Every structure is written in C-alpha cells, then in structure tokens.
Amino acid sequence: MEGCLSSAPFTRVARSPARAVTAAPFFQPDAGSARRHTGGTPAGIRRPSAGRPARAPGLSTANTALENRGLQDSHAGSPVSPPYDGSMSDRGFDARSNLRPLRLRAMMTQEELAAKAGVGTRTVRDIESGRVRPQPKTLRLLVKALGLGDQDRTLLTDAVGGEAAVPRELPRELASFAGRERHLAAVLDAVDRGATVVAVHGMAGVGKTTLAVQAAHALAPRYPGGQLFVDLHGFTHADGPRPSMESVLARILRSLNVDEPDLPSDVDELAALYRSALAGRRVLLVLDNAAEAEQVEALLPGTADGLTLATSRHDLASVPDAVPVPLEPPPMPEAVAMVNAAVAGRATDAEAAAIAERCGRLPLAMSLATARLRSRPLWRVKDLLERLTDEDRLLDELGTGHRGVAAALRASYRELDAPHRRLLRRFSLVPGDDVDAYAAAALCGVDRDRASAMLESLVNVHLAETRSSGRYRLHDLVRLFASQLAAAEEDPSELDEAFGRLLDVYVHFAYQAASRAVSPYQRIFAEELKAHDLGLPGFADQDDAVSWFRAERENLAAVIVAAVRAERLESAWHLASAFSAFRWYDGDTEHQLAINRTALEMARRLGDELKQAHSLGDRGRHFSVAGRSAEAIDYLSWAAALSRKLGDVAAATWALRNLGILYRQSGRFSEALGVYRSALEMAEAASDVTAMLHIRSNMVVPLLRLGRLDEAERRLEESKGLLGPGDEYNASRIENFRGIFAREKGDPAAALSIHTDCLERCRRNGFREGFTPVLIELGEDLLRLGRAPEAVAYLEQALEHAEDMSYRSLERSARNGLGRVLTASGRPEEAIGYHEQAAALAESQQDAYELACAHHGLADAHRLRGDLAAARTHLRKAAAGYAECGVPEAEAIEGRLRGAP
C-alpha cells in the first residue's frame, strides 16, 4: 500500500547526540492544523504532561415490582436544552447539546469544523444531532479545533479529562411489557441476593431477550460503569456471521474505550485485557443469544463487581455461579395479559385468550398477531382469529412447540401485498446479519427509496426489525419462514438473478469504498470501479468509506462465503480483493489473510493468472502489515514475476515498488535501490508517468540512508518534474522531502516552515495518511533547533497516528524519535522506555536499521544517566547494526567507540 509504504524515516550521519528521523507512510491529522511558527509550541499540537511515562504496547404490576426495590427509570426522559444565549454557563449540558452553540460561537460551519479538527463532516453532524456518543479522542480534536479555553472545554471534555464515555447500549425497553412480572421479579431478587450471573433460557421466540432487556433497564442505575449489549448470534442462519471470541472481545473492549491499536490479536491476551478493563467497574453485560454455556463462561468478568445477564435456547446452568431463570411460553393468564397490553383494550379476556391459544402462547407469535390487529382499526378480533385458523403447518420441522409461530407468520404474510411478500421471501437470501436499503432494492429490483419504505413496512408489522438507523434484519424464525416460502413460491432462476444483483451491489460499494480507503488505491481500483459501477452514490470522503466498511465487515465476509458456495467465483474474487484494501483499518490480520486465501483460490479456479498475481501481491502486503517481512518479500516477489511473465507491466511495477519498500523497512537499502531501478526501467519502457514519479520519490529514502545526498536530491527533482496538475497527494510527499533536504543542508528553521505548510496541506486535502511522517519531521526540525521539549508533542501525535493505522515502520521510528528528544530534554529514564520498545518491535519485525537506531539512542540515554558500561554495550550493538545496513553511521559510531574510555 503506497501511502503507508512509500518511504521511511531518515536519519542522517550523527554529528551530535541529537539525530534526525524522517518518515513517509501517511495518516490523518489528530490535532488540527499546525501553522508556521516563530516560537512556542505549534498551533494544534498537544503539550505533553509532565512526567509522562513511556507508552505501553410497562404495566402497573411491573412498575410496582421495580418501585418496591427503590429503582427509578433513568431513561424516562431527557432534559430540553434552552436556546443558546451565548453565555455557555450551564454545565448540565452534554457534549452533543453543547457542540452546536460552541461551533456557532466560533462562526464555523459543520464542514469547516470537521476539516479543522481532522474528522468527518458526518461525525460532527451525528454528534450535534445526538445520533452518536463522541469518543474521547474525537472530543479532544474538537476542543483543539474550536480553540476552547479552560472554562469552556469542560463542556465537551469531562470524559476526556477524567473518566471515558460510559457505554449505554441497551435496546429500547417496552412500555407495554406485561405477563412476565414473576420472571422479572426472579431476576431482580437474584441480583438483590448478590448474584453476578443470571442466565435466562428457553425456546426461540419465548421472549428471552425482551425479559433480559427489561431487567437490564430496571437494574441500570446500579451499574454506573455502563451497560453493554452483545448479540452472540448463537442460533443464526447458516451463512450468517457467528462472531469469533476474538471479535466479541474486541467489540466489547472498543465499547469500553480501548483503542483499536491497543487490541492484541491473541485471544488469550484479548481475554486478559477484557478482564482488566472490567476489573473494579460496575458494568452490566447482556450476552444475548448464546450458543452454549462455554461461550458465556469465556466472557465472564474476572471480578464480581458487575452483573452478567445471559440468554440462550440452551440451559446455562453449568455456567459458574449462574442463577438460572427458565422461560417457557407463559401460562394463559400471563399470555392474556400480554395480548391485552398489546391491543390496548380492543379484546375481551376471552378473545385475548383465543388469540394466545392460536399463537401457541408464544410471545413472538402473539406480538406479530396483535401488531396486525393494531394496524387495522376496522378489524374485529374475530377477523384476526379467522386468519389465524389452519395456519399451523408451515414450520412443522420445528416441532409442535413452534406451530403457533407458523400461524402468526403465515397470517402476517398473507396480509402483505405482492411486492412486500417478495421482499420478505428474498430477504432470506441475505448471507449476513442485516442489510441496508440498497441491498434490499437489489433483491427486488426496485429503487432505494421504494425499498426503504418497504423495509419500514415490514418493521411496522414485526416481520423485520431494526437495531440501528438504516439497518434491517430478520429474527431467525422469520428468516427460516421466509426461506421456506422462497423455496416454495419463487422461480429458482429468479432467485439466482436476485442473488446476483445483491452481489453486484456489494461489489459496487466495496470498490467505491476501497478507492477511498487510501489515496494511492484510487488508481489501483479505478478500472474495477468503472467496470462495476451501478450508478449508485459513492462515499463523500475517506472517513465515510471506512465507516461503511466497519458497518459491513461481517456481512462482507458472509457474502464472500455465500458467493463461493453459489459458484459465483468472479464476484467472490472481487469482494475479497476489495476487502484487502482495508487492511490498515481492520486490525485482524489473520482474518484478512483468510479472506485473501479465498481470493487466491477463486483466481486459481477461474484459471485467471492476472487475478492470481494481484492476490499474491495483496498477500504480501498483508504480511507486511503484520510485520512478517520475510513472507511479505516472498509473495511480492512471486507477484512481480508472474505479472512480468503475463506482460502486466503496471502490476509488476507495483509489486516491485512494494518489494523495494519492504527491503527499505528491513534496513536493506542497497537491495531496495536495486529493486527500484528494475521497477523504474519497466515504468519508463511503458511510459507510466505515475509509476515513474512514485518510484523516483521512493528512491530518496534509501539514498539518504546510504549518505548519497546529492543523488537523492536529483531523484526528488526528477519526481517533481513528473507531477501532474492537481496531484496534491504526491506534491505533499515531495514537499516533505524538500523540508528534509533544507534541514540536512543546515537550515532547520526553513525545514520547520516547509513541514508546517506541508502538514496544513495534508489536512486541507484530507490526506490522513500524510500526517504521521510530517509530524515526525516537525519533531526532528524542532530538535535540531534546540527545542526538544516542544518536539515531544509532535512525536507523541505521530506515534498515536502510527498505532491507529498499524503503521509498524513508522511506529518504530516515532518511538525512537521520542527517545531521542526525551534524552535531549534531560529525561533519560523515559527515553530508555521508548527505545527499548522500539528495539523489541524492530527485532520482531526484522528491521535492522531501526534496531541499530534504538541501540544508539539507548547508548546516549545511559550515558546521560552515568551508566557508561551500558552505554558502551549499546553503542557496539548500534555500530554492528549500522554496518550491516551499510550506512555511514557505522563509521561515526566506531570513531566514538575508539575515543571512549
């Protein structure tokens, strides 16, 4: 991936303990715009805190039951904000209600605030509308962009300055909850007696989730640490995404404000981090739809501070310390209470009993039936009962216990018109858990607006449900019902066509998003995007594209599996290939590699060697992200050789460029130059100006490492001459290098000015990937100017960005850079921590150069502490490492060793 691999940090031959670090994989701003400075800490950059340590890798009866326990519903309402009068004195507002007046006071539009803060416009809009709860990091960015003083910043940053935002994930509670007062009381009594795990089990559709959610809302005030709701999909449809334990743990940790880069890939490490995050916190955790007791047990917190409510179709009595609450179809009095609550007095007790009887007293079936009665004011109860007669044979394979569901579903289905019936049937074709309106439109061959209205109609009659705006799903029993209807009533060829259209929509949006994921991919996916464009809207910006991927990630994986099973090999390959573009945003390298393995298999089955070459290159890039350089080099070499054999010069050149980057990131600078020269010859022969530009600019870093400054500057000028009109992305890269040359020629003040403008250029154009290297350069400029304490803030931000995007090479460079500036600031103990972390990363990821830099920095830090023996040991290791890389620093270090006592 060019934007993350295009160039590496540069360190000149050491002339003093303060040495240079430069980089160029790219990222998003995290502190707004840095501006030209004449002194002090640059605008938009956070000052480090003193002594910061090194970073470590319904009904009255129900209400009476609640009141008897002294519980209050904390969700019954919300305060209404008064009109903004310009004073901002009311400290009772939250971030959502305060952001708009603060923005207006700053005379900024949503777009201007988003641009200045380095976030998406949608993010600002969603926070102001209350659709999302802002993360602490986002609040920090907004505070900086608004230029808030100490008094006003607390309106937005209480969570940032103190505890993190508390998750409130419970689904909506039912005002008409009835008929389960005994079971609700059982749950509450168990908690009163000290239970920390309550397990509700029963058949499908019996109301387990409803009971758990109602109890959770009642208990929420007791658990101020937050309320989490996790659907474990234990009984989902065959192709649906039953999440792995890794993904469940990661999802909960994200809700607990653990940043993505801090999430380990190993499940045991994730579990340990999960238990640590919950330790000492009174958190209520709802684990819905568990497949088995073991799944629940694995997610129990390590301490007894919180409460876990679990639901399953299986008995969870084997879960340690669990209090079981078995749930059966309610007895007739409770079922009658449920029906009466739902129809609001339209039925007598006898009529309500008849409805309950014909629905098998199953809450799901009764809910569906009564919803239809509510939606038809002219109906008599008799009309509904007639429609529930003789409707209990469709789901026979589920057993007699589910016959009532069949009656309710069949009766609801018959009330739909033909288009809505078609949509319900074809909904069963969806491989993933949910869909948006575009996918539904593809299934039925209608436009998006029509599909959206139809989906809402299905929600209104309880045949579909929505858990977030614009996303729709079917209960698993409804999905089974719909699947049987599709098999019985649809022409197989029409179903196949509908499934094909669904795949086409996913391919369209996958390529649209991939082309936005990272700037260089716009060219790579341009041809595929054009070939698969359905004329549907694209994405506004990079944030929009990444948000789509994160919302659809599990669905995309399920769609790929379904495409393979349906022998839709082309579609499977395209989806898997587009999936790969998001490797930097995924954080699950093993999952990415598994998707890529599918792409390779599809290419081989298709007999398409061009696709094979592309997928081999993707695999190499996945290994690169994982820090597995040797495997990455192998796969990129195979991709380059196969592409060259096939005459695909552009693909071969692309693979060689990435291979050169890997050599450079491993400290093999001469080999990197050799690969770049081969790639350049191919690009020149093909008159590929864009490739020529990238290759020449990529040659700058290894040339600088090897001390060939004049040749490096010549290559940069050649690159500048190849810039096309409006190519802001590459222009910003070249400007970054131009600042380096100014510094190396003895003018760090000019370098600071150039890099400050370059940072603003990246921010203005939305080049998120450009921020990390420029921040590193700004830190180095300040170090050279003798302003090391100010440099710390830049390098801390660079490290945060590198971690966010899994830029492993830049993370190593930023850690070493932080170590150097901390040493120069007289803080050697902290410096040692950063250098040791950089050394461990470099050694594990086979980066000889950054390993040598880490030892060099450790030598300087230990010398400042007065430990000359340790300093000499690390200096010898640095000299050996530099010599292995063939860089001039080796000779300079040897000189120091000869002169050392």
Automatic annotation (TrEMBL):
PROSITE patterns named in the record: HTH_CROC1 (PS50943), TPR (PS50005)
Keyword Endoplasmic reticulum among record annotations: no
Keywords: TPR repeat
InterPro entries (alphabetical): Cro/C1-type_HTH, Lambda_DNA-bd_dom_sf, NB-ARC, P-loop_NTPase, TPR-4, TPR-like_helical_dom_sf, TPR_rpt
Domain of life of the source: Bacteria
One term of GO molecular function: DNA binding
Residue numbers spanned by region Disordered: 1-94
Composition bias, Low complexity: 43-58
UniProt-listed SMART domains: HTH_XRE (SM00530), TPR (SM00028)
Ranges occupied by TPR repeats: 653-686
UniProt KW Chloroplast keyword: no
Family annotation (CDD domains): HTH_XRE
Residues of the HTH cro/C1-type domain: 99-155
Record-given protein name: Tetratricopeptide repeat protein
Source organism: Glycomyces albidus
